[in-house]
Amino acid sequence: MIRKIRILTAGLFFVLITLVFTGVLHPWFGWLAKIQLIPAILSVNGMMLFILAFITLLSGRIYCSVICPLGILQDGISALSGRRRGKKTRFRYSKAKSWLRYGVLVLFIAAAMAGVNAVVSLLDPYAAYGRIASSLPAPLFHWGNNLLARFAEQVDSYAFYATEVRIKSGILSGVAAVTLLAIGILAWLNGRTYCNTVCPVGTVLGFLSRFSIFRLTFDTDKCTKCGRCERICKASCIDSKNRSIDRSRCVACFNCMEACHFNALKYTSVRIGKQKPAEVAGGSAQEGLSRRNLLAVAGALALTQVTEAQQLLQVDGGLAEIKDKKAPDRKTPVVPPGAQGLKNMQTHCTACQLCMSACPENILHPSVKLATFLQPEMSYERGYCRPECTECSRVCPAGAIKPVTVADKTGISIGYAVWNRDYCVVNIDRVPCTNCERHCPTKAITLVALEPDSKNTLKTPVIDKELCIGCGACEYLCPARPFSAIYVEGNLRHHSV
User: What is the predicted pLDDT for the residue at 118?
Assistant: First the structure.
């Protein structure tokens, strides 16, 4: 019964957090991201850290088997592998690779202290799953939405509307695909190898779980040393010959309890249990991955990345081609209101992509710079940062984007507009244009006459940087192509206007 409860709870958590990353359930279940360990550490959420530590000290690595989405994903892949190969009892005990576990943990801590967040984000299991869930299945969700929109349109309903099917970022999808492939192969072959040899969260919680009150124990009077529990342990932490369990690697999945035909394994408190101290061990099972299985995994991965080969040509009235806008070469990246500046974003963001999924304007894109690899940056080719929207600050679990109110946001300057006369249609085509002035929410843009002495002269913009908040409305709505004549440069540190 305890195993079934664990599976049902883990499945519910997994489905909900996946839907959160795809942008469906942010308002109701965004808190699932805030109960993850690394975001709780980066946001200095003392209460959540205490709760997670208390749960681990009470019951072992329940976090890894119920709350961590990457751990649940590995369980699913491992279970699929067992069914595919007809081997439900395919593991064996192996000693722990402590040098690798603690070496990765030291690297993780050193990278966090040095501000090398590219390493931190790649090793964080929550962020790794976030990149997988937010990028790879995205085309499938868009196709499903467009299919519903087509049916709704036929019955004169607009509950759904068609959206563009596209990949957010080739680099982001590539990193997510490589992560899924690597972790998927490890899980397919050896179950929880990644959790117990690489994952820094698993190492930290494994250390705490050594002292857990409730734990799995052997009843020596009933145990026959048949080895069935050892062969079904996906963490490879049960030594049936010596009747010992490495609690630092046990993820409390309870598969062994159900597999034991003699009820020799019990999940009980340390006072009742008579288990000998577990050996510090680690390792991996030796099972091969057939070429057919590898192709199946690769094919399923490729399916999630398929998008339309070519987009339909965008035309105005069937005559003039409308060129897509290109992002300007910004000297300083623009980061969302609430980030406080580039330094806070760089040191706290795990690049989980949750803010990008939540952004209704699709103006957040992953950085390709090494120092801020895959962290969000703002770009205004498809929209601008609307003053009434605070979604990214509401969903960020790591404190990289602090919560802000609508009233606060309208007074935060994240950047300033810059005018380039060489792209402006007023200068190039000699036609009047007032888009930037009309749409500026803070009235930071004023049009002045090119020839002050002439009554019918054309007008060009002048920008008051003290009033500009960097929302990007002027850049997005500028008619110049392919580069806007007015664009936003980021502020190193945000300030009030």
Answer: 85
- Greatest Cα pair distance, the chain, in angstroms, is 104
Distance in angstroms (rounded) separating the CA atoms of residues 234 and 259: 12
Any idea which residue has 């069914």 for tokens? 83
- Spatial CB neighbours of 194, under 8 Å, sequence gap ≥ 6: 74, 183, 186, 187
- C-alpha 228 chain-centroid distance: 37
**3-class state of residue 121 by DSSP:** helix
Q: How far is CA 267 from CA 229, 253, 276, in A?
A: 14, 11, 14
Residue 87 has pLDDT above 70, yes or no: no
Evaluate if residue 139 carries a pLDDT over 80.
Answer: no
Q: In angstroms, rounded to a whole number, what is the distance separating the alpha carbons of residues 214 and 270? A: 6
Instruction: Give percent above pLDDT 90 in the chain.
Output: 63
From residue 309, alpha-carbon distances to 165, 306, 316 in Å are 10, 8, 22
Q: Which residues contact 470 (CB under 8 A, 6 or more apart)?
A: 334, 385, 413, 414, 415, 416, 417, 488, 489, 490, 491
| pLDDT at res. 289 | 37
From the CB of residue 454, how many other CB atoms can be counted at a distance below 10 Å?
Answer: 9
- pLDDT at 271 (0 to 100): 59
Residues 6+ apart with CB under 8 A from 86: none
Residue pLDDT, tens place only, 456-497: 889 999 999 999 999 999 999 999 989 999 999 999 999 998
pLDDT on residue 161: 64
Q: Which residues pair with 463 in a beta bridge?
A: 445
* Closest by Cα among 485, 401, 387 to 435: 485
In terms of DSSP bridges, do strands 412-419 and 376-378 run parallel, antiparallel, or are they unpaired?
Answer: unpaired
Residue 261, number of CB atoms within 10 A of its CB: 11
- C-alpha 121/C-alpha 123 separation (Å) is 6
Single out the residue of 93, 72, 74 nearest to residue 82, CA to CA. 74
**Residue 489 tokens, joined:** 């440069």
The C-alpha atoms of residue 255 and residue 219 are separated, in whole angstroms, by: 16
Pull the structure tokens for residue 63. Answer: 């976090």
pLDDT in tens, 380-426: 998 999 989 999 999 999 999 999 999 999 899 999 999 999 999 99
Q: What mean pLDDT comes out for the span 95-124?
A: 91
112 closest CA partner among 56, 178, 44: 44
Nearest to 278 by CA among 251, 241, 239, 222: 239
Instruction: Quote the distance between the C-alpha of residue 284 and its chain's center.
Output: 28
pLDDT of res. 163? 66
Strand segments, DSSP code E, in 343-388 are 364-366, 376-378
Which residues partner with 495 through β-bridges? 413
Cα→Cα distances 223→228, 229, 271, 275, 276, Å: 11, 10, 20, 12, 14
